[in-house]
Hints:
Blueprint: H1 14-23, H2 25-36, E1 40-42, E2 50-53, H3 56-63, E3 70-71, H4 80-83, H5 93-103, H6 109-113, H7 116-127, E4 136-137, H8 138-154, H9 161-177, H10 180-187, H11 200-224, H12 233-239, H13 250-281, H14 283-292, H15 300-303, H16 307-319, E5 329-331, E6 335-337, E7 340-342, E8 347-350, H17 352-355, H18 372-375, H19 396-413, E9 414-418, E10 431-433, E11 436-438, E12 444-449
Parallel strand pairs: 2-8
Antiparallel strand pairs: 1-2, 3-5, 4-12, 5-8, 6-7, 9-12, 10-11
Amino acid sequence: MFDTNLPDGPSMPTLLRQMKLVFQPLKYLEDFAKIYGDNFTIKNKSGNHTVYFSHPKALEEIFTADASKLDAGSENQILKYLFGSNSVVILDGTPHRNQRKLLVPPFHGDRMRAYGATIQSITQQVINSWQDTKPFNVHNAMQEITIRIILRVVFGLDEGTSTEKLRRSLISLLELVGYPVVSGALLFKFWKKDLGIWSPWGRIIHLIKQVDELIYNHIEETRKNFDPNRKDILSLMMTARYDDGQPMTDEELRDELVTLLVIGHETVTSSLVWALSWVDTLPEVQQKLQNELCQNKLEASELAKLPYLTAVCQETLRICPVGTTCFSRIVKSSLNITGYELPPNTLIIPNIYLAHHREEVYPNPKQFIPERFLERQFSPYEYLPFGGGNRQCIGMAFAMYEMKIILGTIFTQYKISSLKRRPDNSHIKPVRRGLTIVVPPKTQMQATPR
């Protein structure tokens, strides 16, 4: 009886709709929103329908709803093949709360700020290798920076043979996870078949086993030679204790390390590329950044406090959120969201992309205007690049901090330009990379010293 109260939605064939979701993810959302408005329902034969919400009021009601009425982790089971069963993304209820409690401290406050010099140093090492005006793959360059940061800050690995081996394996895995066939496998079970190492899914399983072996060896080595003075996130996780006094198991450590790697790396890498691409097209934004960065050799802590640089990062995450939606929630017991009575087993998807492109909240939403964030503050239901509620990304503050330091270090020393001049922003065409929306991965840019 509740079904008649759900928002309207498309009735197109399921396979056609799913293919559009994989290969035209933004058009998928924009086309349905244009027809059905803020909220729309994707119906299925089982009666357990999917409802997209993007109005700030609806998002507020979802994020502040009684947690016992919503189940998020079970819907993320499709990611279990990669993250493992102990990942904070997969867990629900008390186990989820306990895991978040252990993981949050390293990503905030003084502990987070202690990583600033390391982030800046690694960025400097990578950009020192750039040759004047020689084209480079901008995604690979940003990936190199973020991978090195994760290996040092999260894994606690210094330069060496074992670090290089893990770095190469992680990059291979991340590249493969980004293929459209993997996105399809998350929707179509018949794609998810291990047909040996030369098949896409078989290759992923092989790489995961390879990465797991290297990670478990590193965990064992870290435990054997444990130094209580180390401040990397793995060491901090090893010293953390649950309420019953127990530490995290090796399996739990592995699952959280892989989760932090995949989610943290892809989000920051892609956002950095988006920022460089947008700033390149807008001379007035470049000039304002240069006016703010005119001082030489600003420390990491100083870069993180610059208001216009911060606004550029915020606007990048608004106009091009790497994840178009939050983690979905399953209704466990009937729930009312802005007047819609959602029956049990309804799947709720809070939509970040559509929320960030609401004309009444963000005038001229398709334009890149950092000044928005200097003129007013937006509520967590209007601006939510890292999700919301009890599923908000635990690395949110760290990701923003990392972005500011990396971009500030680059822009202080280089002007980054596209090889193909764009008279306007219409030619920046996002593509799907796994579960994220990114600048085409083969995009070439060049760096000119200032």
